[in-house]
Amino acid sequence: MTRTASHATLATLLLAFSGSGAAATVSLSALSEQAARIDVQLATAEDGDVSRMQTRYFANGDQLATWDDGGVLMLCRKAGYLKVPAAKPEVARLPLEQRQMLVYAGMMASIGGVVSIMQSAGADVDVADDGSVSTRTAESHWAYGIERSEITTQRMPDGALRVRTRKTETLTTTPPSSPEDVVSTDADRAARLAELPAVGSWTEVVFSTAAKEARIDPAFPLKGWVSAAESRHDTVGQARAAAGCED
Fold first, then answer.
1. pTM recorded for the entire structure
2. What are phi and psi of 167, to 5 degrees?
3. Half-sphere exposure in the Cβ direction for 135 (13 Å, CA)
4. In the chain, how many H helices and how many E strands?
5. How far is 60 from 22, CA to CA, in rounded Å?
6. Distance in angstroms (rounded) separating the CA atoms of residues 101 and 18
7. SS3 labels along 45-113
8. How large is the average pLDDT for residues 180-203?
9. What percent of the chain is modeled with pLDDT above 70?
10. Which one, of 175, 155, 213, 203, lies nearest residue 36 by Cα?
11. Tens-place pLDDT, residues 118-166
């Protein structure tokens, strides 16, 4: 019995020192700033349609975001381009100001996914070092109660970090207005409740930890893309030169 207990104790110690089951705390904000690519998937209902977006970040400040058949492109933080969806050719004829607004919105879309998971999971998440899936429940407050979400994290084989949040419950903890109340909050409560994500909705973000590429390939064709300014060029290399990019 003594020998068996000793072997069991030794095995426990070896597992502890081998790092099995160890977890690291990761800042989602810092990770989003360092990521070479951010992939976002989301659905507004349990079995709803899934929207997908990918944003790639380059060392020189270039940025390329794509979704469905649309996208935005920013060269060295100076020159913006919109990819014209086949079903919406009118995008190419939008006023300059609207095109610039669409480029800005597209650039920020993946960050919107990051903000969404941070609202549920918090600024930091724990990730198992061995690649196993970690799941926990988190709570966040809304004006009249609490929202509960399931938070899933995983370190992928290529080093990328996957974070998924799924809304599981909406609780109203503030009692409804009574006839004696001077001011009723029932209308405001209903309006706020309608703004909340539906139970079953989910968002998943994958952060690539690979090294950023230096820049977008100069030969990248701009056919089907429209400038957020008034310039017209055939390739990224030409657009980069016209914008005065130094790389």
1. 0.84
2. -70, 125
3. 4
4. 5, 12
5. 35
6. 51
7. CCCCCCEEEEEEECCCCCEEEEECCEEEEEECCCEEEEECCCCCHHHHHCCHHHHHHHHHHHHHHHHHH
8. 89
9. 91
10. 213
11. 999 999 999 999 999 999 999 999 999 999 999 999 999 999 999 999 9
